[in-house]
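Anyone able to model this chain together with zinc ion?
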Amino acid sequence: MAIILGLESSCDETAAAIVRSDRTILSHALAGQEDHHRAFGGVVPEIAARAHAELMTPLVETALADAGLTLNDVDAIAATAGPGLIGGVMVGLVTAKALAMASGKPLIAVNHLEGHALSPRLIDADLEFPYLLLLVSGGHCQLLRVNGVGDYKRLSTTIDDAVGEAFDKTAKILGLGFPGGPAVERAAAIGNAHNVPLPRPLKGADEPHFSFAGLKSAVLRAHETGQYRVEDIAASFQLAVIDCLYDRITYTLDRIDAPPALVVAGGVAANVPIRKMLEKLAAQRGMRFVAPPLWLCTDNGAMIAWAGAERFGMGLTDGLDFVARPRWPL
Ligand code: KG4
Ligand code: ZN
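re: yes, here you go
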């Protein structure tokens, strides 16, 4: 059984975790940077990179101590090698390279999106390939057919903003603070979702893709009229997102040989009303629905360690010359 240390630093969470290939999470340590970025209303790449550099080594020490292990007990060291804010990615990857070099253990360069894509298998031993994955994060909104480790077929993607980005921008417009997704969800919970007329971009379109930029602009216009409560705009926005996701997923499902499970991953998968809609959709289609627990949806080290464990199990390791990638499609 392999023991993998995984490091994550591609956005504003610094994280280190240790996972065993039998799906036991031995430890996971995480430090958010919300306080560093709040005053700017978004993640500042340079500040994020500096914070990762300060936080990563102590977090690795914590992860090892919490698991009662030393570096010698670890079989391989995995790190996010992209895509993401490049300064942060470099911090995690260089740390992993140094640990690999010092211990003589192999390095595994993990695609952050693969970390999200495989994370549901960490908590669900019955989730077999293939599955249909809705990957919704701050940078992505994609439907993928996950055929196996390293074997992903992208079925659709956003033509403009990612869903998480739309949540973050909406939060900023409405003055709900940062991070935006959870703030919009909280406000939406006490708002009337039918009070503010908002568009459903690409709903009913004869193409599989997603679009959210028009929705965000409509939120801005609605807010500027001064006619609506912030909570009602948040709720109406969230419902519009849910309608769009539902419509686009069913469009694709109508046209493919649907796999047995519908799976959601990425930070936006932490949104409870979105999870409920997906659960309903899966039931309508006779599909299993799998969603990671909320802590595993947003960026964390365990998903990187797990993707590392899956890759290590297939004999996939990387050289110490692996270069960090700001862009890296699955
Ligand atoms: O996967 P993630 O942690 O980082 C990226 O790889 O992008 O996703 C972060 C995104 C942010 O846009 C954040 O606002 C969104 O996920 N998010 C949410 C919720 N929690 C996080 N969006 C909607 N509802 C939430 N509860
Ligand atoms: Zn992510």
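The beta strands are 3-8, 13-20, 25-32, 76-82, 107-111, 131-136, 141-148, 151-157, 261-265, 288-290.
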